[in-house]
Amino acid sequence: MLTQARRLARALTGLLAALALVALTTGCSFLGAGTPSVEEAERARDEDRSAQLSSPTIVEDGFLTVGIDASQNAPFVIVGDDGSVSGLDVDVASALADEMGLEVRFVTLDGVDDAKVEDCDVVMGVSTGSAGDLTVVGSYAEHAVTFFQKGETRPASANELTSMTVGLQSASASEQALEATDVVMTQRDFPNLNEAFDALNSGSVDYVLCEAYAGGYLAAQYDDVCVAGTLDAPVAVGVGVAGDNAELQSAVQTSLDALTSNGVLDLLRSRWVGDMLPLTSEDQLSDVGEAAEENPADEAAEGEEQPAA
User: Fold this and answer.
1) For a disulfide at 72, which of 46, 48, 76, 158, Cβ 3.0-4.6 Å?
2) Which of 24, 53, 35 is nearest to 252 (CA)?
3) Which residues is 5 bridged to in the sheet?
4) Whole-angstrom Cα distance, residue 179 to residue 185?
5) pLDDT tens by residue, 58-93
């Protein structure tokens, strides 16, 4: 579990770097000052930006109203005891609003299905399979059932995992996903992912299998724990926008492209998942087949794969 001091230091480092990038990419110069200070970068950014959108394209002039799915796990969303929200979704939404020249305002949702497009301009953490009436714009993360390992030598195929020991969270969607394949491993159940990763670090298990970003969030605590491959094909996670709001869709895509090209999106990702790179189809292990007998269609347990914040 990340200490509060470490998380604060990581956040401050990311903020300083992001502000410097914004200052450089907007063409700002500071005569005789060398590297711009945080205050100078903030001032130059605020002077340079201007609101690109207005109502009725957005709910309220001057604001990007963002729906945050509180049912998401860390690192996407972390809800504090006081109701405050933090996490990758919050950081990306804040940077997105800033790129558009808008202030950000958050609306907490109980799931993407709870999203009412008339109350939100955009909804974070949406993938194609969960979009409903929303159009998914861009990508800033991925969902995948992912193997993590200690060390850098990655298996090329599922066959190399045979007879290895894998740590799983009990009754998780990842456990069900593994049992639905023909991959034969010795399974060890843990009450939470934190304990599974401790076991991986100590050598008690060879792999941990879990949702990609929950694993990346915990793997960042260790010097040599990294992605070994994915069990399924990664699915892009993007920003949900009303299907009939073409102007806002275009603005979100343009802003996400800018955050990608200027490096800010990479900085925000690294704050939450360390050195884990975006997952692609090349990360999926080959030779993964279905189990000989189909497993019962059990629903994933609520709160599945929730690392401690």
Assistant:
1) 76
2) 53
3) none
4) 10
5) 999 999 999 999 888 999 999 988 988 999 999 999
